[in-house]
Amino acid sequence: MIIQKLSGGALNLAGIIADFGISRQAIAKHIKILNECGMVTITSKGREQVCEARLEQLDEVIHWVAESRKLWVQRFEKLEKFLDDTSSK
Question: Is the separation of the CB atoms in 24 and 17 below 8 Å?
């Protein structure tokens, strides 16, 4: 949800918190993690910290999810075949 909100443009912490029903500290923790992952950049402008989404980083996430999905689909297909084979006996 934070990335989605930031996809409309850079916001300060107060602007991000506005629509969430959780504490400022919780939002700050999430933003810190997103920053460490390279999904969000934080720049200081005076006393404010402005956050901006790095949407190009989503390509890496999309690729990882697609590869993981392939792996799990293969595993479930093998499991289904195994279960079919053992129940037929």
Answer: yes
Structure tokens, 3: 């990335």
Compute the distance between CA of residue 79 and CA of residue 63 in angstroms, rounded to an integer: 25
Task: Give 13-55 pLDDT, tens digit per residue.
Answer: 888 988 788 898 999 999 999 999 999 999 998 889 999 999 8
CATH class of 1-53: mainly alpha
In whole angstroms, how far apart are CA 33 and each of 5, 13, 19, 28, 82?
16, 14, 19, 9, 40
Residues recorded for the chain? 89
Claim: this prediction has a pTM higher than 0.70: no
